[in-house]
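Can anyone check this?
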Amino acid sequence: MTTNMGSLDRILRLVVGIALVLFALFGSSDIAWKWVGWIGVVPIVTAAIGWCPAYTILGIKTCKSA
């Protein structure tokens, strides 16, 4: 499994993922679809490992070539 995500991509995924998880944890209890925030775990994990399975399938690579 080689890295296919660049630094900016990883930072953006991490920020969005954390925001979604925080929404799930601390969002208003009146919101019935608050569970959607737990989808934020996926971008956090992909940012942490630097590899996105969807990028592999689609042939996308945002990191610099060695």
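Reply from J.R.: I decoded it. The two ends are 15 Å apart (CA to CA).
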